[in-house]
Amino acid sequence: MFKLNLKIALRNLWRSRSITAINVGGLAVALAAFILVMMYATYETTFDQENENYDQIYLIGRASKDFKTNFTSPPLAKAIKANFPEVEKAGKMKPGYFQFSISSGENSVYTQKYLIAEYDAVKMFNISPKNGLHKTNGEERAFYLSTEFMETLFPGKKDDKPEPVVIGPKSANQTGMVSSVVFADPHSNIQFDALSVGNEIGANEGYGYNNYYTYIQVKPGTNIENLTAKINHLYRAELAKADDKPNWSDINAEHIFLDPLKNLHLRPKAGSDANYKILIALSVLGALILVIACINFTNLSIAQAAKRAKEVGVKKVMGAYRFQLTTQFFTEILMQCFVATILGLMLAELILPQFNALFNVNLIIWRAENKLLWQLPLILIAIAMIAGTYPAIVLSGFKPALVLKGNFQTSRQSYWLKNGLLVFQFTIAVIFITGLLIINSQLKYMRTEDVGFKAEQVITVKNIAFFNKPADFAPIRDKIMKIEGVKSVTLANSIPDGSKTGANSYTVEGKEETISFVDVDFDYFETLGVKLAKGRFFNREFKSDTAFSAILNESAVAKYGLTDPIGKTIKRPNFEYKIVGVVKDVKAQGFESKVEPTIYSLYNPNGNPKLEIILKVEENKMSEVISALRSQWSTINKLDGDTFRYSFLDELYGRLFKKQEQLQSVFFSAALLTIFIAVLGLFAFAKYITNGRIKEIAVRKILGAGDVQLFKLLNTAFFKMVLVANIISWPIAYILTKKWLETFAYSISVPVFPFVASAMITILLTIVTVTVQARGAIKANPVDALKYE
Question: At how many degrees (to 10) do helices 322-359 and 2-15 cross?
Answer without folding.
Answer: 60
